[in-house]
Design a protein that fits this description.
Structural class: alpha+beta
Shape: elongated
Distance between the termini: 40 Å
Number of strands: 7
Strand order of the largest sheet: 4-5-6-7
Order of helices and strands: EEEEEEEHHHHHH
Largest sheet: 4 strands, antiparallel
Strand content: 15-25%
Number of domains: 1
């Protein structure tokens, strides 16, 4: 039990986990007794659930990774990009919603350093570039994401890889929440 939402009321966290996966719920135990967060709704989550009051408003944000890129382009588990998604409690909706676009500074912290450390002969060539592009995408900066990818990914399969990335994104609930129902 933890007070995610501030005040006296506490919320119950329930987690069911497996290696590299899991489902997490946060249930408000106030008089209306409702689920305020379900990781499955946005297809996020691994073994853990992070919490942090990023904006110092007394309500904790929830941090979870997107696992949609496991196995993408034959990536090993170690090189799979796991974009971190920030969820903020929305009073009107009565639940946590994706919010990287509201916390761009936090979501993109250290990205310039990551870009500066890229080199053309490194292992994980695609995965490192994809990880950076996804950070931009989920921070609400899709144009910057594709400009970065086009500039930094120099292999001849660029268009096929980009098409595959977009296919995964257009089906993902967090992407659809941020950008609406339109295709990439």
């Amino acid at each position: 039990m933890f007070s995610f939402l501030g005040g006296q009321a506490k919320q119950l966290v329930v987690s069911q986990t497996i290696p590299r996966g899991g489902r997490h719920w946060v249930i408000n135990l106030a008089s209306d007794f409702r689920v305020v967060y379900d990781s499955d709704e946005y297809r996020v989550g691994r073994e853990d659930l992070g919490v942090l009051d990023i904006d110092k408003d007394g309500r904790y944000e929830i941090l979870q990774e997107i696992t949609a890129f496991y196995g993408f382009n034959n990536f090993s588990s170690a090189e799979t990009p796991l974009p971190l998604i920030i969820f903020k409690y929305d009073e009107k909706a009565g639940k946590y919603l994706p919010a990287n676009h509201l916390f761009q500074e936090y979501a993109l912290k250290g990205i310039e350093s990551e870009i500066g450390n890229l080199n053309s002969d490194e292992s994980g060539y695609l995965s490192k570039r994809l990880d950076i592009a996804l950070q931009y995408v989920f921070a609400g900066k899709e144009q910057e994401a594709w400009a970065f990818f086009d500039r930094e990914y120099k292999h001849p399969d660029k268009e096929a890889v980009k098409s595959h990335i977009k296919a995964v994104l257009k089906e993902h609930p967090v992407y659809r929440f941020i950008y609406g129902k339109r295709a990439t």
